[in-house]
Each structure stands twice: as structure tokens, then as C-alpha cells.
Amino acid sequence: MTPELVIRGAAAVWTGQRTLTGVDVRCGPAETERALGIAAAAPVEVLEIGPALEVAPGVEVLDATGCAVVPGLVNAHHHLLQSAFRTLPGTRHVPMRVWLGVMAGAYAAARVDAELCGAAAAVGVAEGLLCGVTTVADHHLTWPAGADHLAMAEAVVAATRGLGGRLVLVRGTAGDEPDVAAAAAEELVARFGPRSGDGLLALAVGPAGVHSDGPQTFAALREVALRHGLPRRTQANEEVDVAVAAERYGRRPLELLEEWGWLEAGVTVAHLCGVTADEIARVAATGACATHAPGCDLPMGWGLAPAGALLDAGVAVGLGTSGGGSNDAGHLLADARLALQASPLSGRPLTAIEALAMATRGSARGLGRPELGHLEPGAAADLAVYDLGSAADAGVADPVAGLLWANPGRRPRDIVVAGRAVVREGRLCHAEERELAGALRRLLETRKAVTA
Asked: To which H or E segment does residue 246 belong?
């Protein structure tokens, strides 16, 4: 049986819906699974929240004295492969068309394959875990001709599982032939299923956007998604997306997505920079979700989503870092802080709780994972423990708001995924951070030497 875990003594517990003080959190297998004696692979959830919970002999206790406990962060939009391509010359503060060309050249030179995908994913997932991210959605768009695409996906899955994180693997496309993209998605479903029994892996599909893929590709992947119950994800309204939609179709991206069946329930659209009031109303009316990615879009100059207006319209808004090729970092809490700071520029300031909710339950909703992103009873037992004893936290009146406002670059002390510790005292439990970084660095150096 999976052992129970009790988180004891926290200064504050934010469940995603309320802030509690003087309470403990008990995690373990669901009651039905405990009664049936299901083995350790059974999902682990939050069983109870309350003061001074009784701890039975043998139950693990995580001492959270002087700490804030929050749901594990959910990075709704990442490109893990780009963890191997940060701060490349020619990629800073350039038009998106230029950026896409530089990145494509870098991918070709590095020869993207399963080995590189696994090494980059290990670094990206490790970085996320160390920054509070327990679930990452990897919108993988680069599938070179001749490479073993299934092996590439398997490498990303293995890297994430090895570190103890949750993964939503998005079989994306950026110009693949429609039948090739659909067949590849079907192959992933045959290999992994729509979702693993322990909930640590789920699949999704999604073209990069109307700038890269046409209606046939969107239709083919929609059919696969509806057949298997997969979430769908795409991108819209970044700089190049708006320009190409106008040049190629004489339309706005969201008009095309709606026409092509990709603005409806079950779809999440990332970026949504500079959308109009009418477009916000259109997204809200269709039931589609949104993902804000300010850590990519704002510094690159590609636009800014009006997150507050989207929330006010009733749109579920999540948060994503996007990839290392534009953001350079996978620190979702830092990007939540940036979303908070930048929000007045889009007309409606966010509160700290709204920004944190975007990084947790808002992201989870867009991924079709209602059990993630909160800590109410029945939620998955994914949580982050933040030490509030630093100088940066002195004088903070609201410890939950202070997680964003008071300490840029804050890292958690402990991370729990599915009831099991994956980060303790700021260190990975299942790998050495420096070894993962070194492995990717050596691989890139070797490939550069061969190319040269």
C-alpha cells in the first residue's frame, strides 16, 4: 500500500480556494482503493484538512513549520526541447519570423533525436520541479524527418517519470503533413493510452498555430482528439500568427480557429496577445480555455494577453512559461509574478491570488485535469512547501500574496507529487541536478564539434 503522508505545522495552507491557518493536510490512497488493498501505483489524493490531525504509527510526517503550503504549480505551456537552446545569438528581441528561422537552424544543427529530447526534457522537468512545478505540458513541435518519433516521445516520458513529475505530452506539429501528424498521434495513443493509470502521464494534440498549419491538419488532429478524448492545444495571436493569418487568409487567427473547429470546449489557446474585446467574448462564448505566457511574450516584444479581461469574461486562464528559446527559464512562479506586475499594462490589474490561481487550477482546467491545481479533499496529492523564514519574507502581511510579491526567483523547500517527495530541502530526490545539466551540456558540445 502507498503510505500516508501528513503535512504538519504550516503557517498557511492555500488550497486553491481558501487560505487556512493552523491546519494539517493528510494525503493517501482514496478510501475505495485503501479498502480494496490496491498497490502502490494507485493515485494518491488529499484525504483530509484540519487542525491537529491524528498521525498513526508508521505514517510519514512532513514538518512544514514556518512554511506556506500550496498546490503544485501546473505549467500549461512549455517546449521542453528548447531547454537545450537558451540565449542563442540572434534570438533576443527580434521579430518572431526571425526567431523561428534561427531556432529551426539550431534544431537542424543539433540533430534533434531521442537522445537530445530526453536530455533536454530531464533538465527542463528538473528545473520545473525545483521551482515548484509538479505538472508540465510539453507542446512538442519538432519532429525531424527520419528520426524515430516514438522513441523521442518515449525519452521525454522516461525523463519525466524518472524525476517523479507529471507530464502532459502534446503531440504538436509545425508544418507536418496532416496524415503524418494524425498517424503519429494515434501511435502515441496506442503506446501510452490517453492517460496512464497513475495519472502521471496524459496525452494531448495540437498544431503550433494557423501560421504553420492549415485547416486539414487542424481537422485531422481534431478527429484524433475526439476519438480518444484528448485535450487539444494550440497557439494564437503572437506577432507572426497575426501577420500570417492576415497575409494568407485575410482573417484574424481566432476567426480561423473557430471556423476550423478549434475554438470550443476541450481546446486551450496559448498566448492570445492583444486580443480585442470582441475576441475575448468569442473565446468565452465557445468554452475554450486560455494560457497566458508573459515570460515569453513580454520580453520578446511579441505582445501581452489581457489576462484580467479574459478572467472577467469567464474564460479559464492558465499560465505557461513557453520554451527556453524565448523565455530562457522554466520558473512558473516567477512568471506568475511577472503576470501580476505587467497586468496593469493590459488594462485590468491582477491580484496575487488570481495569478497564483492561473498557475495552478487555471492551468489544470485547460489540461482537462480537475484533480490538479488545488488541495481540497479529493485533489491529487501534489504540493509545494515554501519556507517563509527568509529576510525577504520579514514584514509580509499576507504570506500567500508574499509568495509572488516578496521574493523574486523564490524556490520551494519541498515538493510532493502523488504523495511522494520529489524535492527535499531544495534538492531533487531521484537525480543530481548537476549531473543532468552536465549530460545535456556534454551532448550539445559533442554535436557542435561534429557539425563543425
From this structure: helix 239-249
